[in-house]
Design brief:
35% helix, binds L-homoserine, 3 domains, Alpha-Beta Plaits, Rossmann fold, 11-stranded mixed sheet, Dihydrodipicolinate Reductase, domain 2, 13 helices, 6-stranded parallel sheet
């Protein structure tokens, strides 16, 4: 039996999840892995006297963790970007293996952190909570070339969209519940504006396509503009609206985008609800594989943290080779160059000939209509909604068509535009 001593930085939901799992499953872990895991020190800038540290020493100085010669590896669960980045850098420089759940740090600084091998760095918990998606890409599918990695990778957004779809919940109420349940980031705008999903997509894309992590390459839309009306109209047309992260290799380059998306109800992803995440991977040898599970929450994320801890503990003292990337292998496409089908909701005056004018404007940009419905004014409103599903079109053409449609005198208010993916 090998004893491995852990230091934990941060004392939020995930750190508490790690302590809880060890409290209940320490013996099981020892039996399976031959590792006796001991948390010997916890450091947090904010003391939480109510948390049971099971005998671990407490410190408000994060540096105490990597200065402690008794500690074999450190777990970074501070959250945020700058302080966590500095901490990870310092711990690695001190020769401590680091396990982190911090997607913002890996997406922004992973290239630097993984470019030297002073000590190993693991980040399974940074993407899709409990799902071992990094293991799947780096190990299970290591012999494959990837065609796409597409998924629901923010639990908070999925929780909100599901509550709006299934219970008719208001956006703000659903977000408040997601925060109470410990799903949302400390600043929930990271979730609802799509930034958290973009951090995760940047990591998945880098791993699947052997490229540097580049958050700036990701096109980002959140879910704040998705209305109950859009969810209802999409439902009538046979779709659910999900917030997707999508990295897809095309003939001209890589699409890398996160945004709300209409998915046919027949697609498995369309029925992945609540806090669940799911990632579809298409690769040349394995074909389509799908991974699903809780994408947020203390226990689920702590499960992934401990998988890295035990994996590394079994390897020690072996050191990692630096991550090698091929920066010239792949080009992320500007959003104007991607191709997608669209859902459009166009608020117009109820006048004869409006639909024909909208159809003409679309047609003049080579955009074909797949399906259309006209909805009567909703209670208290005097505008009708023309709801259209288009065939696949280049984004730049759609943008030009929307400028033209928006300028029609009968069109009142903003047009809702959501991409559609059949994921075939
Ligand atoms: N706020 C994140 C989410 C937590 O909702 O998915 C897990 O990364």
């Amino acid at each position: 039996m090998k004893t491995v001593r852990l230091g934990i930085a941060g004392l939020g939901t995930v750190a508490q999840g790690v302590l809880d799992i060890l409290a209940s499953n320490q013996q099981l872990i020892a039996t399976r892995s031959g590792i006796d895991l001991q948390v010997t020190r916890v450091a947090s800038r904010t003391p939480k006297p109510d948390v049971n540290l099971a005998g671990a020493q407490f410190s408000t100085q994060l540096a105490d963790l990597y200065a402690d010669e008794q500690i074999d590896m450190v777990v970074e669960l501070i959250g945020g970007e700058d302080v966590a980045y500095e901490f990870i850098q310092a711990a690695l420089a001190a020769g401590k293996p680091v396990i982190t759940a911090n997607k913002a740090v890996i997406a922004a600084h992973g290239n630097t952190l993984l470019s030297h091998n002073a000590a190993p760095l693991r980040f399974e918990a940074a993407v899709a909570g409990a799902i071992p998606i990094i293991q799947a890409i780096q190990h299970g599918l290591v012999a494959n070339r990837f065609e796409h990695v597409v998924g629901i990778i923010n639990g908070t957004c999925n929780y909100i969209l599901t509550a709006m779809q299934e219970q008719g919940a208001a956006f703000a109420d659903a977000l408040a519940t997601a925060q109470e349940l410990g799903y949302a980031e400390a600043d929930p705008t990271f979730d609802i504006q799509g930034i958290d999903a973009a951090h995760k997509l940047a990591i998945l894309l880098g791993l699947a396509f052997d490229s540097p992590f580049n958050f700036a390459d990701i096109y980002i839309e959140g879910i704040t503009e998705v209305t109950s009306a859009d969810i209802q109209y999409a439902d009538e047309l046979g779709y659910h609206i999900k917030h997707l992260g999508l990295a897809r290799l095309t003939d001209t380059g890589l699409e890398a985008r996160v945004h709300p998306t209409l998915i046919p109800k027949s697609q498995l992803l369309a029925s992945v609800n609540d806090v669940l995440n799911a990632v579809l991977v298409k690769s040349d040898a394995a074909g389509n594989t799908m991974y699903s599970g809780p994408g947020a929450g203390g226990a689920a994320t702590a499960s992934a943290v401990l998988s890295d801890v035990i994996g590394l503990a079994c390897q020690l003292p072996q050191q990692d080779t630096p991550r090698s990337v091929d920066a010239s292998a792949v080009r992320v496409l500007p959003i104007e160059d991607i191709r997608s089908a669209y859902y459009l909701r166009i608020p117009t005056k109820d006048e004869p000939g409006v639909f024909a004018q909208v159809a003409n404007a679309l047609s003049s940009h080579g955009i074909s209509i797949e399906a259309a419905i006209q909805k009567e004014p909703r209670a208290g409103q005097d505008l009708v909604s023309i709801v259209i599903l288009t065939q696949v079109v280049q984004e730049a053409e759609m943008a030009a068509a929307m400028t033209q449609v928006q300028s029609l005198p009968q069109v009142q208010g903003s047009i809702a535009r959501i991409r559609v993916e059949t994921l075939d």
